[in-house]
């Protein structure tokens, strides 16, 4: 059973700039940010997707390079973050390439809480590398703050159903870590189908309001040579209002979450007004709408089409 929610809690999105392939360096930077967060009385710091491995895109990595990045949930990097969480008393969410017990790789996100608890979400829609598998379940958990937390990574947030399912499982605070992706193997269009600008400016506030929950989003980038370009962060309340945004490299984009806004939000009222008996089609349709009446198709595979042109100057007889 979840505890009563505290009246407010301060959280931060941290647009960390990571060093590619240098997990010890990136973990040290995470610890520095947690020390700063403790000084500002922040209880939860949300770091970007794959911030421990540090690559902006893993698409172009060879097998050996990807294997070198992968660690289990109880591996040295996440364990070092957990140690820093205990030291500073600030919970942290961090992204990493996870090696499961069966050898499969996942784009995962671990939340380490003071007291030793760890919760891990595996990205549901992993497209960034052919060797990275997609997760098969939602991740929602209770906290000592009385707030139920859900996690969706990067493109997970682009599908309306994912956010709605997370809300229906009781999440009132969604962590939405992100990382800008590079180009595909042919050097063409970006592998990330939706830009971070679209997600942060348009979709995340709308979906926070739809579902009556707080959303904390952090985007990270990698160090490119000697140039460092920061990511971005955004914190949205259950009414869709942006409480804090942007920031510079490794800066804390923080806001105080007033938990009393959750139950009074329109999104929570809409959830109560749902009629699940009407939504069966959501589970029947796949990528193709196969439940409609089939179209008339000729023997050569063409679709039969008929049309008529009607003059506006003469009456139809």
Automatic annotation (TrEMBL):
<dbReference type="InterPro" id="IPR036526">
    <property type="entry name" value="C-N_Hydrolase_sf"/>
</dbReference>
<keyword id="KW-0378">Hydrolase</keyword>
<dbReference type="Pfam" id="PF00795">
    <property type="entry name" value="CN_hydrolase"/>
</dbReference>
<feature type="domain" description="CN hydrolase">
    <location>
        <begin position="9"/>
        <end position="259"/>
    </location>
</feature>
<protein>
    <submittedName>
        <fullName>Amidohydrolase</fullName>
    </submittedName>
</protein>
<dbReference type="InterPro" id="IPR003010">
    <property type="entry name" value="C-N_Hydrolase"/>
</dbReference>
<dbReference type="GO" id="GO:0016811">
    <property type="term" value="F:hydrolase activity, acting on carbon-nitrogen (but not peptide) bonds, in linear amides"/>
</dbReference>
<dbReference type="InterPro" id="IPR050345">
    <property type="entry name" value="Aliph_Amidase/BUP"/>
</dbReference>
